[in-house]
Amino acid sequence: MSFQAPHNTLLIPGPIELDDVVLQSMAHYPESHVSPAFVKTFGETLTLLRRLFQTTNPASQPFVISGSGTLGWDMVASNLIEKGEDALVLHTGYFGDSFAACLETYGVRATQLKAPIGDRPSLEEIQRALVETPRKVVTITHVDTSTGVLSDVKAIAELVRRVSPDTLIIVDGVCSVGCEEIAFDAWDLDAVLTASQKAIGCPPGLSIMMYSGRAMDRFKSRRTPPSSYYASMANWLPIMQNYEALKPSYFATPPTQLIHALHTAVTKITSKQLAERFAIHSQTSDRVKAAVAKLGLTQLAVKPENQSHAMTAIRLPPGLTSADVLPGLLKRGVIFAGGLHREIAPTYIRFGHMGASVTDPGRDDIEKALVALEDAYIEALRAKGLQGQS
Ligand SMILES: Cc1ncc(COP(=O)(O)O)c(C=O)c1O
């Protein structure tokens, strides 16, 4: 029996439903952030993250900083690239626009390579863009949460290494770390940025990152100082290194209770084979996508290889908007998100299937959501005098 108060099931693409053990570990008495006990918790958490990101290279550097996923963009923009330099942003939805806007805030020249909604830039287009102009960094949104489009990070990384070996490969893994395969060393990535509140299964509030030795060297050889104070690696690097070496250190106060929650969540994830975790997310995603198709509905990402396993972006038929369907879901105890892509927001809904809702055999969140979706959809069609497509 869960101790959590009864509540509607949160199946938006983050924040997500949480395990009791994660929530309970947040109810920790206050600790000094430099006490030996807390230093041990933080240090172990950083080391466990190496396993989650699949890196054994000692040059890889984890960072956990109070903030949301967005802070990861500021870290990249203010430490790994300098004013006037070029970045290539691979755009598969809303979050590409935002990463580009963040880079531009720091004076970086961010060029976006855009694909039609639901699709992703092709390898040929990426190659052309990299050969045309030397780029200091290329950014990839692994799963764009606005469209549910999955990028082929492995293939893009191979291409970048071949045609532009000095370009840093930056992966926005906010909606993928913990549910999609990411092999930091094997794919030769330079940065993977994520946040606590999605597939890792923690409350919001932590920006979680892994950087390669190559990325850290790029930072160390900057001509100009980092262009941010709070997001400066110069300020945070010694702190992360000290915590992992179990030495107390201070730049800015870490959120001690949240670090406990992250420690619990990452301990749980890494106590099993990661491959099993990716497989169960993939199977659940297949089940959801099959149920959506059975209702005669389509996804924003049409091609199966473009479809994320973390979430499903469901297109509504003409005549229906998210405002017609979401209240019916809520009435049945299920919360989905509306659309986020600026051009088509009202025309689709988003179903997040990550973390405890997928991995905990004691929960029936996905089954409940699929029943609620069918009922709410049929109810909305009837209310509008429309026919379903099936
Ligand atoms: C792919 C992606 N990148 C970045 C972000 C920004 O993260 P946050 O809202 O935690 O700042 C999000 C948020 O949903 C996201 O889905």
From TrEMBL:
One of its GO terms (biological process) is glycine biosynthetic process, by transamination of glyoxylate. The modification N6-(pyridoxal phosphate)lysine is found at residue 198. One of its GO terms (molecular function) is alanine-glyoxylate transaminase activity. Its EC number is 2.6.1.44. It holds the Pfam family Aminotran_5. One of its GO terms (cellular component) is peroxisome. Substrate binds at residue 350. Residues 35-341 form the Aminotransferase class V domain. Keywords: Aminotransferase, Pyridoxal phosphate, Transferase. Its cofactor is pyridoxal 5'-phosphate. Belongs to the class-V pyridoxal-phosphate-dependent aminotransferase family. PANTHER family: ALANINE--GLYOXYLATE AMINOTRANSFERASE 1, AMINOTRANSFERASE CLASS V. This is alanine--glyoxylate transaminase. It comes from Elaphomyces granulatus. The lineage of its organism: Eukaryota, Fungi, Dikarya, Ascomycota, Pezizomycotina.
